[in-house]
Amino acid sequence: MSAAATLYPLQNGIGNMVRNLFPESASLINPVLGVIALVILVSSLAGLLILLERKVSAHFQVRLGPMRVGYHGILQPLADGIKLVFKEFLKPRGADSFIFYLAPMLPLSATFLLMAILPFDHHLQLVDPAGGVLYVLGISGLTVLGILLAGWASNNKFSLLGAMRSGAQMISFEISMALIMLLIVMVSGTASLREIVLSQQGLIFDWWIFKLPFLGILSFFMYLIVSTAELNRTPFDLAEAESELTAGYHTEYSGMGFAMFFFAEFVNMFVSAGLATTFFLGGFHPPLIGIPLIDGLLNAIPGFIWFFGKTFFIVFVYMWFRWTFPRVRIDQLMSLEWKVMLPANLLLLMMGAVFMVLGWAG
Amino acid sequence: MKETSPKESLLEYGSRYLRKVVTGFYSLIQGMDITLKYFINPKTVITQQYPENRDTLEMFDRFRGPLSMPHNQDGENACTACGICEKACPNGTISVLSTKDISGRKVLGKYIYRVSQCTFCGLCVEACPFGALAMSNDFELSVYDRNELTWVLNKPQATSQGEC
Questions:
Q1: Which of A24, A145, A208, A360 meets the CB 3.0–4.6 Å disulfide criterion with A355?
Q2: Which is nearest to A136 in space by CA: A192, A217, A220?
Q3: CA distance B14 to chain A (A)
Q4: Would you call B30 an interface residue with chain A, using a CB distance cutoff of 8 Å?
Q5: CA distance A286 to A288
Q6: Does the beta-carbon distance from A324 to B39 stay under 8 Å?
Q7: B28: which chain A residues are within 8 Å (Cβ-Cβ)?
Q8: Which residues have a Cβ under 8 Å from the Cβ of A349 and sit 6 or more positions away?
Q9: Which of A76, A245, A225, A221 is nearest to A157 (CA)?
Q10: pLDDT tens over chain B, length 164 residues
Q11: Phi, psi at residue B50, to the nearest 5°?
Q12: Among B1, B35, B47, beta carbon nearest to A60
């Protein structure tokens, strides 16, 4: 355990209060509180992100977006949610019921599991496994599994084809994502997300995006591209490709089944942006520039505000990509991954190792 | 990606590849620049809050609503009942019923226009040699009875014409 990690132990006020009040059952109450907080966070984030996507896309496209329900359409996600709850969840004839009902839960559970290890602040993180990066890569496979099972269980050839397309896409891009994460793990010397953030403590130039000369900014842009593809968002949204496939893997899903895929996709966008913040943008650290007066002001703002600010900036960049770029073809997508991204990432990893040896990294 | 010709050296291939990457990113950034300009200028928004702004609603000049026949102050129109619009209409929306006036000249009796069949293609307006027709800007056309969608466009003269 590094010096920084002992300086900020993973405890917070509420947890300590519970430990003082109920010393015996604290190990039972605290996880329950954590799960409740997670459920509240994920559900409110889903609503917020859906509203944000609609408003941001509207303004990019010179229109207004939802304006009727509440002030400037603030209650629109609530209305959408109520509509989806009351819609019938149909199962196609001959479909495999167990897998058909299981499939939409997998991406959503992956979202919850990933949210649990995001370091929101010095003391705001549910768990911090030592192999956090490995955990992230393993859990994001659940999304692919959910998509493949959804396509398989729908008893529909076209859903299966759509699922295989998206499965192929997400698995291919996961390789590049793993390599980029590996670069950061290599230079920071730890695989725990919290310690990756703590390794970027200091000025703004100590964030990995700037600390690694040239490589940091390059790998940050590559992370943006790869995670956009991993999230199935435009310009790589071949998974649903509404003008070509009319939904791909979730063609047969309606009501809450569809909504679960939808929520998972939106909150995964936040998780992915949060990982970008953790790996490259210094997580919960404020962007200190070395002038004491300004740094004091920046330090006064709590860390989770910095985390959410940076994360929502990345989310905005994802939305910006989505409403600007045209969609690519499936062969272009695959050649981008296997012919460009993967060799480039391997090269990046080797250059990172060279930088480490020369002592330029950090 | 184009196949490398055997004459192309690795250096040429590499420079072409790098140029492609750079120009590709440059064009993506150009696109993002345009969308960001739209995003930070809310004045560019062109959607209108329709039922609330019914009084101040501005339609576009080229909007094609139902057909209309402009009349001057004396209630006269430019139609000569030639029937070219009737022939130009692809789906039989228009019927030009002509009569004869006192001097035996062919004049317009009733100009019957069926909105329920109209596709708002505007071919009648283009075909009219006298400029007697125009597409109006109305769009609130819903009624409860289909018969109400058969209109007589020319104003009934003081003579015999009444409702269709």
A1: A360
A2: A192
A3: 13
A4: no
A5: 6
A6: no
A7: 324-325
A8: A179, A182, A183, A186
A9: A245
A10: 556 566 778 888 889 888 988 998 899 999 999 999 999 988 888 888 888 888 888 788 888 989 988 888 877 888 888 999 999 999 999 999 988 888 888 888 889 999 999 999 999 999 999 989 999 888 888 899 988 889 888 875 544 444 44
A11: -60, -60
A12: B35
CB A223 within 8 A of CB A180: yes
Q: For residue A1, is pLDDT > 50?
A: no
8 Å CB contact between A117 and A127:
yes
DSSP assignment of B7-68, as one string?
TS-HHHHHHHHHHHHHHHHHHHHHHHHHHHHHHH-GGG-----TTTTTTT----TT---SEE
Joined together, the tokens standing for residue B132 give 């007697």
Collapsing DSSP to helix, strand or coil, A52 comes out as: helix
Q: Give the dihedral of Cα atoms B43, B45, B50, B56; nearest 10 deg.
A: 30
The C-alpha atoms of residue A166 and residue A172 are separated, in whole angstroms, by 10
The ipTM estimated for the assembled molecules is 0.78
B25 exposure class (CB count in 10 Å sphere: 0-12, 13-18, 19+): exposed
pLDDT (tens digit, 9 = 90+) per residue, A223-265? 999 999 888 887 887 777 666 666 678 888 888 888 888 888 8
For B20, other C-beta atoms within 10 Å of its C-beta total 12
| Residues in Cβ contact with A268 at an 8 Å cutoff, skipping those fewer than 6 apart | A107, A110, A111, A114, A143, A231
Instruction: Find, among B69, B59, B62, B163, the residue nearest to B124 by Cα.
Output: B69
Exposed/middle/buried for residue A340 (C-beta within 10 Å: 0-12, 13-18, 19+):
middle
Token pair belonging to A4: 């920084």
Tell me phi and psi for residue A287, to 5 degrees.
-80, 80
Report the alpha-carbon distance of residue B91 to residue A233 in Å, rounded.
Answer: 44
Q: Does B42 contact A at CB distance below 8 Å? A: yes
Contact A235, A327 (CB under 8 A): yes
Q: Which of A354, A337, A348, A334 is nearest to A176 (CA)?
A: A337
Residues of B in contact with A61 (CB under 8 A): 38
Distance, in angstroms, between A180 CA and closest chain B CA?
A: 20
DSSP H or E run through A100 = helix A97-102
By the 10 Å C-beta count (0-12 exposed, 13-18 middle, 19+ buried), A101 is classed as: middle
Report the residue from A60, A321, A325 with minimal CB separation from B38.
Answer: A60
Angle at A291 between CA A286 and CA A293, to 5 degrees: 85
